[in-house]
């Protein structure tokens, strides 16, 4: 099918299958799961993933065409965004065939929800200083420790967990990646409320949780290279909005602002044009990264530039919406209040703006890297995180 036909078919499918007046709120997770199964049956879930593992084996061009058509709809897929954008692509790239066989199709069909267990109270930007331990016990690993800010973990069936397996080597060299069963006894999930009032992320405690060795992703002590794969996918998927579910419900989007403000005012029109230019610049940058990926050029650290631009655009939109709607827009029940209070989170989740700038400076612009005094020091001798 040529791209124009593909796009037409996607448009027709979305019109027929996404209710214009939103999805029922009564059981959002059941609604999301049902929708994902329909999306997969129709061939729109895992568009670029290999067919062998339940994907469609198509290219970035089809993925982008579907994303563009989805923009005007509210797809209830948010709870799957970590699986679709981060943990799933990590298993596609780095998992064993048995792991791909077991996990990828249920993810694409919305049967299982995933979370990403990297950050800890003492390890966010410097995630390689994490302290959650996994100790070998025969053909299992026993996990103890704490994670934090874990999005959608309260709904998750599986988590991609980065844990320390060796304290005698420098911090980046003693980590291993695992798939952990979030329903196993010993896993405690406690929701945390953010300032928008939502409890979408959690703190997680692991008490003697066993993980079979076949759920290890990558080699023992080579978890950092697997984590880098996840983080690259994370930054690209956040900036491209993978699984985020369109913009229909975002009251700070250009589409929404255009209908809610006085566009007869030339100053307002100037502001909206500026927003349009920024939106368009980011879309074109994302398109270029996607085209390069298709041509076999991996975007690498430039995904961090795209994520940084999206974080800045999100704050710009929220700020503009607040200025146009007036100070009451931040009050609790105002339609803009939630979007405005959630906007700063984009500058933190997936890596902060400062860290994105460090990465771009170091690996895109080849500026001198930050000094790393701990690079060759065994982890056990470091005073990092909450240790020591
Ligand atoms: C909405 C949201 C969802 C999230 N979801 C997840 C998730 O699903 N899974 C997960 O594992 N984590 C998740 N996180 C955690 C996120 O990855 C961390 O918050 C982030 O990496 C920053 O870590 P931190 O909060 O510990 O801040 P810190 O690392 O303590 O940083 C504090 C401040 O210091 C600055 N800073 C730190 N180091 C440097 C440096 N070297 N140079 C310059 N400035 C620096 C930072 O930019 C920041 O301003 C989420 C966070 C948010 C907000």
Task: Describe the structure in brief.
With 388 residues, the protein is an alpha+beta fold.
Main beta-sheet strand count, sense and barrel state: 4 strands, mixed
User: Distance between the terminal alpha carbons, to the nearest Å?
Assistant: 61 Å
Helix content: 40-55%
Judging by the overall fold, what is the CATH architecture of the largest domain?
A: Up-down Bundle
Instruction: Please identify the top-level CATH class of the largest domain.
Output: Mainly Alpha
How many distinct helices? 11
Helix and strand run = HHHHHEEEEEEEEHHHHHH
Describe this structure in words.
GO terms for molecular function: flavin adenine dinucleotide binding; oxidoreductase activity, acting on the CH-CH group of donors. Keywords: FAD, Flavoprotein, Oxidoreductase. This is Dehydrogenase. The chain has 388 residues and is of the alpha+beta class. The chain has 3 domains: 3-108, Orthogonal Bundle (Butyryl-Coa Dehydrogenase, subunit A, domain 1), CATH 1.10.540; 114-223, Butyryl-CoA Dehydrogenase, subunit A, domain 2 (Beta Barrel), CATH 2.40.110; 228-364, Butyryl-CoA Dehydrogenase, subunit A, domain 3. The chain is built from 11 helices and 8 strands. The chain has a 4-stranded mixed sheet. Strands 2-3-7-6 form a 4-stranded antiparallel sheet, with no helix packed on it. It is globular. The model has no long low-confidence stretch (mean pLDDT 92). It binds flavin-adenine dinucleotide. Flavin-adenine dinucleotide binds next to strand 1, strand 3 and helix 11. Flavin-adenine dinucleotide is lined by residues 82, 115-119, 124-125, 149-151, 201, 345, 348-349, 351-352, 354-355, 358, 370.
């Amino acid at each position: 099918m040529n791209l124009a036909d593909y796009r037409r078919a996607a448009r027709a499918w979305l019109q027929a299958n996404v209710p214009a007046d939103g999805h029922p709120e009564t059981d959002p997770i059941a609604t999301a799961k049902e929708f994902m199964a329909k999306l997969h049956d129709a061939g729109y879930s895992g568009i670029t993933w290999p067919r062998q593992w339940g994907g469609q084996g198509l290219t970035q061009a089809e993925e982008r065409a579907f994303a563009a058509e989805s923009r005007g709809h509210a797809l209830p897929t948010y709870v799957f965004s970590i699986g679709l954008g981060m943990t799933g692509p990590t298993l596609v790239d780095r998992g064993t065939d048995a792991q791909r066989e077991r996990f990828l199709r249920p993810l694409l069909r919305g049967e299982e929800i995933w979370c990403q267990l990297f950050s800890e109270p003492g390890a966010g930007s410097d995630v390689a200083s994490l302290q959650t331990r996994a100790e070998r016990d025969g053909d299992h690993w026993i996990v103890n420790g704490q994670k934090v800010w874990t999005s959608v973990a309260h709904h998750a069936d599986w988590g991609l967990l980065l844990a320390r397996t060796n304290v005698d080597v420098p911090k980046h060299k003693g980590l291993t990646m695992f798939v952990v069963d979030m329903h196993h006894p010993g896993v405690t999930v406690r929701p945390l409320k953010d300032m928008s009032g939502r409890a979408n992320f959690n703190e997680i405690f692991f008490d003697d949780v066993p993980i079979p060795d076949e759920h290890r992703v990558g080699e023992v002590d080579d978890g950092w290279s697997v984590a880098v794969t996840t983080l690259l996918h994370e930054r690209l998927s956040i900036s491209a909005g993978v699984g985020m579910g369109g913009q229909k419900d975002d009251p700070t989007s250009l589409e929404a602002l255009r209908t809610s403000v006085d566009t007869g005012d030339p100053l307002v029109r100037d502001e909206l044009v500026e927003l349009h230019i920024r939106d368009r610049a980011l879309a074109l940058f994302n398109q270029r990264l996607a085209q390069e990926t298709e041509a076999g050029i991996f975007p690498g650290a430039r995904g961090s530039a795209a994520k940084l631009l999206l974080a800045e655009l999100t704050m710009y939109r929220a700020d503009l919406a607040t200025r146009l709607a007036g100070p009451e827009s931040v009050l609790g029940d105002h339609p803009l209040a939630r979007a405005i209070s959630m906007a700063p989170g984009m500058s933190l989740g997936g890596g902060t703006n400062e860290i994105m700038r460090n990465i771009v400076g170091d690996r895109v612009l080849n500026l001198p890297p930050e000094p790393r005094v701990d690079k060759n020091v065994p982890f056990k001798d470091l005073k990092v995180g909450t240790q020591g």
